[in-house]
Design brief:
4 helices; two-stranded parallel ribbon
Length: 99
Amino acid sequence: MLRHAMDGASDGSEIMVVGACMQPDAIEPMIGMFKALTIKFSRTYTGEEFAAVLHMIGEGALDVSPLVTDVIGLSDVPSAFEALRSPGAQAKVIVDPWR
């Protein structure tokens, strides 16, 4: 993906990597040099930001219900993982152990 971003970038562009790729991502440094590209990497959030968002959710200041696609019990976990294999089937599934 990073190579494709470099190929499509205009001269002098900055590429910001904010996602995690679990496989090696090969690039050709000469593309970046000829186009004078800048590539930056970022953690997606800090611990303080994570804590602040959790607080907002807990206080009801941030409605996350549109993100939750299903609430399941423990016995449904295996089938939920199968559903997560298909793109678009599920996004965020909450496991409620008392359900």
